[in-house]
Amino acid sequence: MPVLWGVSFDATAMSGVVVEFIKIAKSFAGRGFGVHLDLGYDIKADKGRFFQPYQQERVPDWVTLDRVDGLRDIAGYDQEFVAATLEDVRHDRVPDTGHVVERLADAIVRTWEDRGVTLVMVENGTLPENVAYTKALYRAIEVYGTTHGLGRYVLWRDHDLMWQSEPDKYGSFPYPATPPMVNSPHIHYFALHEEAKRRTLEWMPHLRNLDVLPNTFTPPSRPGRADFREHHGIPPDARIVARFTRIIPQKRVDRDLHLVAMLPDTWLFVAGDTEEDPGETAKLRALAGQLGVPVVFGGVLEPCESAGDGFSVRDLLAHADVVSFLTSYDYESYGNPIGEAIAAGVPYIASRYALYDTVYAGFEAPVLDILSHDLPTREFAARVLELMTNAERRAEVVAHNQQLGMHNRAAAEDLVSGLFPPPMGERVRLSVVLPVFDEAANIEDVLRSLHDQDDIDPETYEIVLVDNNSTDATVELARAFAETSKVAVHVISEREQGVACARRTGMEFAAQRSRNRKDPGERFYLVSADADCKVDRRWLTELFAVMEKDKAAIGVCDYYYNDEHFVGRPRLWDAIQRTLRCRAVTFSLFGGFPDGKGFAVEREAYESVGGIEIFYQLRDGKFVNHLSDDWDFGIKVRGAGYDIAYAPKSRVEINPRRVNHALDEVITGRAYGNDGIIVMRDIRPDAPPRTADLTEEEALQAWEFSIKDFTPKNTILPVLLTPSFLDDDAVVAFFGQDLAARLGERAAEIKAEMSMTDFQPIHSYKTPSYRLYLEFRDEIFARLRATVGEDIGYPPPLPECFADVPEERFAEFVKYYCEDRESGEAHNYFGNGGVF
């Protein structure tokens, strides 16, 4: 069993830091990791728990409380030593720790060896409470990682900015006594928010591998106990303000007492250790008596994640009307109270401490400005009361906060999963990559079609859904689907907007993990799917069979429209069908090129050509992703000498919205941009689609743009990239011997003239393809009419600029026309992207 070792520099049994560790560790436990947690009793001196044995600390039953063996035996390492080094730090003196660091590091390594540790999570390790231990930890990470050949196996997260903002306690910038963060091949650093990241880089400007990992908001896994109120003597109709915290002066529980004194029929429930500071507890009890506030000091509750018999924070949240966080310090406390409230669907209130607006940007809550008012005001109490009693307003706030919180949680989980990906099933041979952006209306049907595949074992493939900044319920629906799916479903994210970026991220995620399969000698396939296109029930079976039989680098599917969506539109349907009939012929001859709607690539070939490449272009003065990453990739693979196979029985149904919601642009050949700019048009239905048939004039225009786009890419480009096609009997039969010979000769002349040896990016193939089309268009159309049908017709009219060109100079001016990048006329004549 792989083992995750967690170490907290907090030295508290259930602090916010520990709770956040548990939330992240839970995902690893679900993957089969054993989870060991060192609470840091032997690290931090001021909590008074140095070398104290674990006794009744409440952590989930899947967490093993552990600690480094043999620390007590290290001469000179004890609570007094740690306190003395912290005193040096406070005065910017570099403490003498050399005599214990090496032995501490050795003890850590021996313990990890004994437990079989494979992954490490460090929480608040940069906090300069114990610089000797921090130095030892860095040394142990390097030794252990090098010895075992581990990559970036350490997740190191610093929650607090206390060490950067409290010079009286931790020294002053640039913190000469604090161990510098190291650029290690074994460590990935995380800050809690962008401000913490900025401040960290201000101190360590050359630090790499630093990301933001916010606190996560995990929904409760069980309902609250119905007997909570009765057990604690709280009337069933009383409102409850919940506060779960350490009961110490800094947490300002007195503010809650003053607030509740202004709220009718309201009780205060304080969950926390009343023995940590008995004097503070006594003061609070006395103040409650003076104010006449009904208050329950409920002791330390078990964490939300607990499934034990005792009462937990989850039970308190289930009965609370509002959660309070009226603290005075700029860090969170026991159980991340605001996060727990958001996850549980309970409104919260807070004080505007130093970093509140950074940590909780966008969330809605009454906020007390403690710089202006140390205690709650009547106006603040009125806002709290409205939130507790106005059902409509309460529901709005809860829904808003939960939606934002779920997005943050998903982003955090995806970040961790991307860096520390879950293992791939031993029998998996195909990984289906599905980029998504705001596809809540389609995602369940699409996932169901990917799941319900005939004649293929669900353990032999997986689905990798790549969220590309969705703002709707796409991710939530996908996660819900994954919970009951027989096929493994992984949800990851890509923050750079663009389907090409998302597809590449999914492919890389799958390729990396596939290396750990049971039999790495087997061919492994990366498969592309589209989030608005459903696949037939034998889509994956037929695609896999062709890839295995032909040993091709790429397998291309068949794409079709359901005729039911075009009833009553015969002209439009005819134009679509003619294009698809042409494609069936050329794909059978040349294999076609991959379309993101459905293709497979063998992993070794994928990696050998450098994978999906993202090209950028300028649009309105800004760089945007070039849309044709799938075609670019096919060109790279074909140009590298690999074969592409066509799987005609592997079928993908194209969503009709691709035509219906962009029909005007389809007709005019501008569906994917113009002037050489190829970008994704958002075709989500924000207005009623055009469902009327085309006029005769529109139908002709749509067909002409479709065939002009189709012919250079599907009949000419293949022979440009692979001239040996012209030696194939079927290809020669299609073109005819004479045309095949002349086409090959002319292609070679143009390539030599242009000094082109590589036709990798999509823009490199356009000019020669366009030139050959214009020179051979009449003969190629004759062959299409003979092979596909007479209704294919004749080439669309030439651009008007050729009207005055002498026939003997036609090829010369074709060159000028196709190479004229400034006007973009050729791009607009041929259209951009696949029309149908």
TrEMBL record:
Instruction: For this UniProt record, give its keywords in alphabetical order, as a comma-separated list.
Output: Transferase
Molecular functions per Gene Ontology? glycosyltransferase activity
State the source organism's domain of life: Bacteria
One Pfam family in the UniProt entry: Glycos_transf_2
Q: Does the keyword Transferase apply?
A: yes
Q: Where are the transmembrane segments?
A: none
Q: Where is the Glycosyltransferase 2-like domain?
A: 431-590
Native species of this protein?
A: Lentzea fradiae
Q: Report domain Glycosyl transferase family positions.
A: 226-363
| Protein name as annotated | Glycosyl transferases group 1
Instruction: Give the InterPro entries listed for this entry.
Output: Glyco_trans_1 (IPR001296), Glyco_trans_2-like (IPR001173), Glycosyltransf_2 (IPR050834), Nucleotide-diphossugar_trans (IPR029044)
UniProt keyword Transferase, yes or no: yes
